[in-house]
Design goal:
Length: 467
């Protein structure tokens, strides 16, 4: 009798497990049908998720319109979009995110592209003004040029400066004798900026070159809970594996409280809405309810006197009112993710074995029960002096960067339409070069990668391209 009871309990447990697995499988199948696309064209990052109702489709299309259609200088007959500038880098979001993908250093005619920006800051002097800036925006702006160089100005407003790039070549040699040439940016004001229009900048100005990131899966990354991100923190490296990731804790413009950073190269924006407002302000100088001030410093008189957008005459003080800001955010949240097909199983195993997956964590399970595979932990890591930019952003110090999501990284050249670059400043012309720039907490994984045979290194690279 006892054996029969145990057998029945075993059958029941097997049935529960089977039923739970079946439910999980159905959840994942429906999720992938909703959020994933098999499109491999340049438009792969531009499809809306399935299942939107009429009202949601209208919101999506409104956001898409304001994301793609150019803004113009005020005053203009184009009343909905005449708020550009007075100082700006681009006139559309797509200027920095072609086909919703990553940008590049150079455009098609060989000039530095509008999606390649230069972020500015200075060290804090401990004053009340500087401490306030640190607490609210995470860094101290350069007094004359602000937080980002604007390469364009509207009528009668001089642009701020033009970017300049100079590289030196480094050679890295594998134990098997193969060598790889790496490009190292030469830093310094005179090596990075030219045609400065607003006087001599602060003597300790820090310039950080940045490539605009791909917009893949932003809505899904926002669905990862704070608790899931914090669960992977190991600030004191308690497990003694040399990796001590930490979440960036930032100021939220929405809640007016501390929040976990998720977006940008240093995880300094806690939500898509806030990152959209930041980009509108820094790249196009559009005012929003979250950032209502014009993108002008006290020294930029022409900028301060420039005409305002027609939004003022339409009853709102903002170039990009809340409804339109939310529409752009909604558009970005509801874009499909390219479906990956992994064939390089040996490369996947090697990726995990040498430690890449300790930071590029393959998957998260969302509250819906669906599993996503962005290959990131959303945390900050010290990447060594070779990649350090010296710039502080909230808790991120000068050598710390958010673990970049790897999903669809091998598809960059399709959306970009040409050879892609990698890392925050585009210095790497290949995934291999990007790996070889890893240092700091990733030093051990890089060294293990270098110890592999050429054949096995290529397997890892092929695997990463398939993500």
């Amino acid at each position: 009798m006892l054996k029969k009871q145990k057998y029945n309990l075993w059958l029941l447990s097997v049935g529960v497990i089977f039923h739970s697995t079946l439910i999980a499988s159905e959840i994942q199948k429906k999720f992938e049908q909703t959020y994933y696309t098999s499109d491999q064209s340049k438009n792969m990052l531009s499809h809306s998720i399935e299942g939107l109702n009429d009202e949601q489709i209208d919101q999506f299309m409104l956001g898409k319109s304001f994301f793609r259609i150019p803004w113009v200088e005020a005053p203009s007959a184009t009343t909905a979009r005449d708020g550009l500038g007075p100082l700006f880098s681009a006139n559309t979001c797509t200027s920095c995110h072609p086909n919703n993908g990553v940008s590049s250093i150079y455009n098609d005619i060989g000039d530095i592209s509008r999606g390649y920006v230069q972020r500015l800051s200075i060290p804090s002097d401990g004053s009340k003004e500087h401490l306030t800036q640190l607490s609210l925006q995470g860094f101290v702006s350069e007094p004359s040029y602000g937080s980002q160089i604007s390469i364009n100005g509207t009528k009668n407003v001089p642009f701020e400066a033009k970017p300049k790039l100079e590289f030196e070549t480094l050679s890295v040699t594998y134990p098997d004798g193969e060598s790889v040439a790496l490009k190292k940016p030469i830093l310094g004001i005179h090596n990075q900026l030219q045609q400065l229009q607003y006087g001599k900048p602060h003597k300790e100005m820090i310039i950080s070159n940045r490539i605009a990131q791909s917009l893949i899966g932003m809505g899904l990354l926002e669905q990862i809970s704070d608790e899931q991100i914090l669960a992977n923190e190991d600030i004191e490296d308690i497990d003694n594996d040399g990796i001590s990731g930490k979440a960036n804790r930032v100021y939220s413009l929405v809640t007016k409280q501390e929040a976990i950073g998720r977006y940008t190269w240093k995880a300094s924006a806690p939500s898509i809405l806030e990152q959209t407002a930041n980009a509108a302000h820094n790249d196009m100088s559009l005012t929003t309810p979250l950032i209502p001030k014009e993108n002008c410093t006290q020294n930029q008189i022409e900028c301060q006197k420039a005409p305002k957008g027609d939004a003022l005459r339409a009853g709102t003080p903002f170039d990009l009112p809340q409804q339109r800001l939310e529409a752009i955010s909604y558009y970005l949240k509801n874009l499909k993710v390219p479906k990956s097909v992994i064939t390089q199983k040996e490369g996947e195993k090697l990726f995990n074995t040498i430690g890449c997956a300790k930071c590029h964590i393959p998957s998260f399970t969302l509250s819906s029960g669906a599993v996503i595979k962005p290959y990131t932990d959303m945390l900050l890591h010290n990447m060594g002096e070779g990649l350090a930019d010296g710039r502080v952003e909230f808790l991120a110090n000068g050598s710390e960067w958010r673990t970049a999501p790897l999903w669809a990284i091998g598809k960059r050249e399709i959306t970009l339409g040409k050879k892609a670059q990698y890392l925050h400043d585009g210095r790497a012309d290949s995934i291999e070069e990007a790996i070889l720039w890893h240092g700091g907490e990733a030093q051990s994984a890089k060294e293990q990668f270098m110890q592999l045979s050429k054949q096995n290194r290529e397997k890892i690279i092929k695997f990463i391209k398939e993500l």
